Amino acid sequence: MNSVLIYLVIISVFSVIITVYDKKAAKYAKGNRIPESMLFFVSAAGGSALMFITMQIIRHKTRHKRFMIGLPIMMIIQCLIILYIIAK
Question: CA–CA separation, 29 vs 46, rounded Å?
Fold first, then answer.
């Protein structure tokens, strides 16, 4: 259980870092962006909750429906997986 928690903390922090980096790159370094597929991959790997919160706070990709709908769906799925792991 501790290793799962450590993993979620690490992937969540990483998701915040790449989201903030992509926001800064969108403003200042147009050619040096994080691909959306990478953002979704990190989100699916467990960083969806903090990535979604970060996107709301810094107003990044909030007009993209696939992020504003997809990330909450991933959060629900991840919560169900965590509940399943805890119940075992």
Answer: 27
**Mean pLDDT computed over 12-24:** 96
Q: Is the pLDDT of residue 47 over 80?
A: yes
* Contacts of 47 by beta carbon, 8 Å cutoff, 6+ apart: 11, 12, 14, 15, 16
Q: Is the pTM of this model over 0.85?
A: yes
Type of residue at 80: L
**Exposed, middle or buried, 6 (CB in 10 Å: 0-12/13-18/19+)?**
exposed
For the chain, the domains span 2-87
Tokens of 87: 């119940």
Q: Which residues contact 86 (CB under 8 A, 6 or more apart)?
A: 1
